[in-house]
Amino acid sequence: MPRAGPAPRPAAPAPVPSRYILSVTAGPARGQRFRLMANGCSVGRQRGAILFADDAFVSPHHAAFRIREGHLTVKDEDSASGVYVAITTHELLVPGALFSVGPHVLRYVGPLFPRAAEAGKARLYGAPVPQAGGLWGLEEILIGLRPGRAVVTAQPTLTLGSSGADLVFAPDPQLAARHCEISPAPQGAVLRDLSGGLGTFVRLASQERPLKQGDRVRIGQQTLTVELAA
Known about the structure:
The protein has strands at 17-26, 33-37, 41-44, 50-51, 63-68, 71-76, 83-86, 90-93, 98-101, 104-112, 135-142, 146-153, 158-161, 167-168, 180-185, 188-193, 200-203, 209-211, 216-219, 222-228. The protein is mainly beta. Strand 15 and strand 16 form a beta hairpin.
């Protein structure tokens, strides 16, 4: 009698679409829309359900969108250029945090303290620390992580934009006249968006970031907006 073959494996269940859609609202892939499956997806230049193969600023495996109990999150998968999320009103920055205004990336340096004198070494003199408070700094980060302009100030608030701001950049369609402001605080610095909808974006650290309808995520040169299916 012929021996029976192995029982066929059950077919894998078909992917179930979620209610979340990622719409590319700015960048070279503008106009593309991606319906996320119920388990989320990865985004990258070479790996993932969403690929931006022609974007040199997208890492091979750049970011992961996950859906748990109906809630969407995004996480940076150790990408080179980072994952940025637009803030709604304000965000607390720790020293070293990166944020972007229009096409410009900046780092909040944090408070600056005078170097303590070392015994047996020459003492270096410079400008005195202002009486009103300590110094703090910002620095621009250029492509290739090269340093750009730096600002050291004792002002309680610094505004950034294309005109009428403390730190002025060249006019750009992505940049408002007074785009955002940053104020030092005991825990770091408070970054406030003043752009009127253009968006001030902060770079994510290693943790997952919850997302809701209307939130914008910048990956490489692409800006993805979270939508909900009808």
